């Protein structure tokens, strides 16, 4: 299909990442002091070459726009200068008189939507793929044949059926892909419908689409940023840039420009589409719509075509191969037909028959339906397949590059361990484990109670019962509803949400607050309601009558609160939380079993050990302490000054530690182990610290032994010395940067050798990686010959997702652009769903093999009759129309049912297939054609011979019968063996005395065995010759065992060409019976047939459909006329095919037994593996 000229979100983000990484790389360059300016230029050039080296059409960029983005200074210039540039006022905003002109200048605040390929173009693409074109060509040939021989309508019917086949399969594929796109549309997030803005000094609410540069907007808690803004006021405003970066860490926004050279990192900019999750603020709109950071990059890139999936490549190669064979054989026999004297029309019919017999027309429908059914099954398992062929691609995956957060882990901090009274205990959730579980901590222990109270009162996070903003935005953006109707829907949604919210467990309830505090409240809420805990202590007031609370900041690394806390010696208590080392340093005492003890060397050692252990496990640790303030110095009503700290802050009493971790999802370790058993390498690629990444990798079974890095530290040896002492390796992103610099100037084939060595490790983690480095990793894996699956959720992941063989995005946490770039979406963000997809993909590849063998097997039984017709001049055993009835009728349903067969036992223990292992290879063709194909041909011919024999034609009589000429009798003549003319009145007129001369008789003509023109004549009166002056039979006929009357000629079948139509129907039934046996033989690749049992109820349905089709073709008179079939008796209903069908089943069970039990004792495959495996 022609490349779309429209913008694509995935391509937009590719360019965005290029710009972002260019800035990142410039910063990284400064860390290498020894690098000269020349190396800087060379490295920059290297990275640019890498980005351009992706297999895409050249991307067109507008240099002026790109330069504008790099050189933007709106974040760094003085505020007064920015006011002048934007003609606005920080205090009063824009005036109403300016709005119209600015709207005309800048346009509405909307992103230009991606122009989608019209539906009719997509449908046309499905109608004109390689397979479809082949069938179109066959249909055209049928119409040509009908034009040349209109007396035979079967060619017309054949052409119509072929067209119906290609149209129906194209429509099915088109509708399935349209359905996936419709689901994708549901993922789209909307810009906030309304926003608060200051104009003419007054605060007002207006549609976000009406914003223009220079507007002063108020950013509210929980709302999306409506445009790119410069922050001019921040009240602890924190934004979630996960829609941009994929990382869910909240970023503080301030009025200070912290990165003048890097607008993407500076703290005084907030970007369109990001979410304000804490605090609030105010900002000046810098850019709107397409001129935002995302929108500006959108103008730089045109969408590019994706590479074909492995399945599409395999199918196209197979179709092309089969087409060459079919057309070549068809052309050869078309020419040979002239050589033996057939007319052009007959030769064309031969050619069409051979082509149709060789091309499995039903395979296209089977592939589409099988993929659709699998996609539907995966959708039930929360895996959305955007591209049907992506299912099989996932099955061929040999390497998974997985993001950590949200994919392998739960993407929510959870209490892992607690430490108080000098003891470490597991922090099992009471909600999750239940009341019967034996917990290591004791709720009644004073130490635990102190830790509980301190942790909750120090935290500000709360549960959020309000309707999620995404739902509010969706309702507000409904088209065709009045505001009153929207308000009514909103109220209804709120009431439904409240009912659903009350039923949610604590772990699933939405919260407001940072991740660490959220973990604390979810742990302690089942023990005691957090609001009750906080209400038990009133917060003290500072000199400004505000709460005496100081939030956490990165400088102090602690947060504290002062509360009213009545004891014998105190009215107030200072509660502190923060980094463990910082809190420990503020304390000189520690609570232990209800008593206060002085810190000593033993306590110091104990603290250092447990804190280091938590660190090695990749856990985030919080320390807690408290200090009761003496009554005398701090009486009730004391005014605390948090800036001057007019209260003691050191010499606190240490309460305990709580360690947090984003734990792996419950089924991920098993899923990773399953991948390893399947020979699939799982590589973690994360932006986290190496220690955290390694700890999670251990819990996920990605790493199962000491890493090279740990051996380096233990033995105090170099990286190179430790490299070969372990199979587990953690690579820091800095090493990748250094590798890229070291590779400069090397030939292309020598670049990345270091990465290839790293990728050779079976247990591998990449930490602190950037999106550009993720691209390098993916490219390196592909260079090793891997079929690579990549998971991601952020905007910055989309280039790697696009580059991968199969891109997988997260449905819950994933950004829209990541979903747009992906081939599959995990609706539950669960890594184990990938393993399910791999298993389904492998199963479907196996089942496609079975399906192709199934279809090709019948091809031999369909082809040989045409060869017999031409070479041995037999009556045509099978017509082209009946061939098509097999291909797109009786064969379709059983071949579809293969998708419901269970996978082989070894499907997830065998190694992934390599790129050299094709869907269709020499072994498969050899097996299909020379083993099962030959046996099925025997099925057809044995039944055909039996049928002809029952109608008086012995097997030997049939050979070269089409070459023999005869004198046709008159319609009412009756065969009389005692008559000199055998009842032929035409002969009687020519030879009145019953004597003749020579060999040939007068009136000889060709007997029509192709069409039904001579079906009413008894051929015993026609096949005569002159011998010794007498008229004698020219053929030796047998006895008529079955005396049936043809519904077409109203005369007996015996000794007439009408017997051929009957025998053709019988041959057709025999092939169908052979295919039933073939299905049973192919249900398992190597396992015994009884392993699957007979619980595949769809198999019985397929058999019933086959029976229904064959019965209809035989016994419904309308079908008799169209397809040339006849109503046949039971013994001719394929019954004689069953002995050869049983031989086929026995042979297949025998060969599978030998494959399983006669293994090769050398590195080479055994004879059985080489010769009878497909």
TrEMBL record:
Single Gene Ontology MF annotation: ATP hydrolysis activity
Any Gene Ontology biological process: intracellular potassium ion homeostasis
Highest taxon in the source lineage: Eukaryota
Residue ranges of the TM segments: 130-149, 155-175, 321-342, 348-373, 851-872, 878-900, 1097-1116, 1128-1147
Residues in Cation-transporting P-type ATPase N-terminal domain copies: 73-147
Location of this chain's protein in the cell: Cell membrane
Gene Ontology CC terms: plasma membrane
Family, per entry: Belongs to the cation transport ATPase (P-type) (TC 3.A.3) family.
Protein name: Cation-transporting P-type ATPase N-terminal domain-containing protein
